[in-house]
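RETRY 2/3 - previous attempt timed out on the joint model. Re-submitting the same 205-residue input unchanged.
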Amino acid sequence: MLSHAEVQAVGNPPFSCLDAGCGEGYYLRQLVDAATDTQPLSLMGLDISKWAVLAAAKQDAKQMPLSSWVVGSNAHLPVQTGTLDSVLCMFGFPVVSEFARVLKTEGVLLQVEAGTNHLRELREVIYPTLKPERSTETEVPEGFTHHSRERVSYSLALNGSEEIADLLAMTPHLYRASAEGRARAAALDVLNVTVDVHVAQWRRL
Ligand SMILES: C[S@@+](CC[C@H](N)C(=O)[O-])C[C@H]1O[C@@H](n2cnc3c(N)ncnc32)[C@H](O)[C@@H]1O
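RETRY 2/3 succeeded.
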């Protein structure tokens, strides 16, 4: 999760922002909380999962009157070319050419991706062996410049099987792990996990 300050750094309001792969809309709600009263926001949350979009829209309620929630794919965004100030892609499935298409010149793409140690302790429990680590070096995407990259890393204590199950359910590991792996996680009462993410900002040329 990002702090309010990090969410605020996404762009200077007023701006239009698409969360591409918004899940249940957590980050757009953070953006609304971080915004000032005098600056309007125009927000769209898009996800390929209709269940995620329904959950986001339900939580939205009256809090985000200018937001829209859309079932769709990052591969074909229902957005006009060159109209957005910002695109967020948090732990998502980026289609950078499409993000470049919808952003204005100077618009910002903010990407958050898991680092090599992200949730390592959980992965060590659910998998017999961990895959070799991939390089996290990222090239500047075509059509973008002004690369800033920050690594955010801290330890998180999970107390109780419910918190551990909630975390596992937020990750793709829930579906990738075997039944035995999930059972090993379910048997835990306490788990300290490393949060290790890369936050990259790219500016549209
Ligand atoms: C790991 S979740 C991250 C959700 C949210 N961004 C967050 O950080 O809480 C990845 C999300 O991407 C969505 N997704 C997968 N493929 C997608 C695509 N092609 N276009 C849009 N969303 C997609 C999934 O349905 C899921 O909600």
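Confidence is low (pLDDT under 50) at residues 1-5. Closing ticket.
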